[in-house]
Amino acid sequence: MDLIVSAATQIATPLTLLAIVAGTLVGVIVGVLPGLGSVIGLTMVLPFTFSMPQIPAIALMLGVYCGSVYGGSITAIVLNTPGTPQSAATALEGFPMAQRGEADLAIGWVTTSSTIGGLFSVLVFVLAGPSLAAFSLQFTPIEYFALGLFAMTCIAGVSSGNLLKGLTAGALGVLLATVGNDPVTGDLRFTFDSFQLSAGIGLIPVIVGLFAFSEMFMRVLTIDRDGPAPEQMRVGFRMPPLAAWKGRLGMLLRGSLIGSFVGALPGTGAATAAFIAYSEARRASKHKDNFGKGEPDGLVACESANNAVTGSALVPTLSLGIPGDPVTAVMLGALVVQGIAPGPQLFANHLDLIYAIFFCLIIVNLAMFAIGALGASLFTRVLRIPEPILIGLILIIATVGAYGVNGNPFDVWVAFIAGVVGVVLRHFRFPVAPIVIGMVLQPTIEMSLRQGLILTHGNFWAFFERPIAALLFVITALTLCWPLLRKGYARVKR
Predict the structure, then answer these.
(1) Which residues pair with 189 in a beta bridge?
(2) 3-state secondary structure string across 377-399
(3) How much is the pTM?
(4) Which residue of 173, 185, 206, 396 is most buried, as measured by CB atoms within 10 A?
(5) CB 73, CB 87: distance < 8 Å
(6) Would you say 237 and 108 are in contact if contact means Cβ atoms under 8 Å apart?
(7) If the chain, 494 residues long, is cut into consecutive pieces of 10 residues, what is the mean pLDDT of each piece?
(8) What DSSP letter does each residue of 174-215 carry, written as one string?
């Protein structure tokens, strides 16, 4: 109890509270701007932490981290442009809601689900931190490969009834992600002797192109023909009514559990958690026929999952000293600068610091809710801008976002070409989300497969001898075969 009181006292200082609010606000803004993301946001504030006391420095970093994951969902809803890869799944349901004049309600669903998912991960961080970290150590490359394959089943969920087209788009995403250096041998592949392609094709420029550029190109082609007039769009933040949560609390809990589990596994990340949760929601929802048309179930699932990653991702970082992704790697460096040595002894010898982080995360998520609710009117007011001006403004922001990742003009061309390809794919009714899924998951799947084959001396069937991997393989097979099994059962029943 003394440790808890001490930690609460350290948090309740003006400097720490200011750091939480400022960090969360900066994080939301960074997430809203396409192409920036959590890593860049943390890198921006990292120099400020060097001269700050320990607890305020940690609070600032946590605010930027959590805020940036949430902020990307706002532009995904309003502009169909995910500010971060974690929010790509949000655009699938959020933007259709905005198109029918419910942007404020979509932001209400997203903000509430993100806050609850984040708070849930805080409980996981404190109550199950050491145990979850120990369990994650059982994951070898074989288990990561099985998990990656399971995540690829999300393609079936976002293919709008045409699985073949979805798989084709997913294969295109996998192919794009293989361009550049071979992760094992270091050899160049599919570069066609182009120096620009030797570094690979960036995920952010492709996302900006497929979503922002293609959406704006489509609007130019269909301007003033369809869609609600700007004055009919609702502006602001609208809290979903309590009656609407009936039947969706299970979806919220399921998404939070998925995000907490995936976040504790090094090398996965919030984008993977969001797509897995979205796929699971589509399978289990009572409103599955409404998915892709603006279904709140999809928003609740993916947003609770990607924000639940924020707390659980700190589990391997703090308890094992293993950064789960580039975001926690930057945070790990900041903690070392502050004189904190992450590792097995941290939970045992510095429990007061763990409690301080616990309280920081709670306040950060509450601040995130307040900023989202109060600032929503500013974010959604862009819907009232005349459409020609809005299209030009979005194209400028998207171009800056594509360029700002690496400061490379080639990324702008990648985004432009991806936008043109996105228009063609939409015209022939190919879903574009599977391309992003393929690009997100390909590095994990390929690296894990090749490492697993090295461990088993090239014997792929040995993968099925690992209990966790075998269970994931079975779940993947059942997920893919479930529609066929359900149709067969219905036919037999008739």
Answers:
(1) 180
(2) HHHHHHHHCCHHHHHHHHHHHHH
(3) 0.70
(4) 206
(5) yes
(6) yes
(7) 72 87 88 71 76 86 88 83 78 85 87 90 74 68 85 67 79 90 84 86 82 79 54 67 84 88 71 83 80 85 87 74 64 72 67 80 90 77 68 78 78 91 88 80 86 90 90 84 74 77
(8) HHHHTSEE-TTT--EES-TT-TGGGG---HHHHHIIIIIIHH
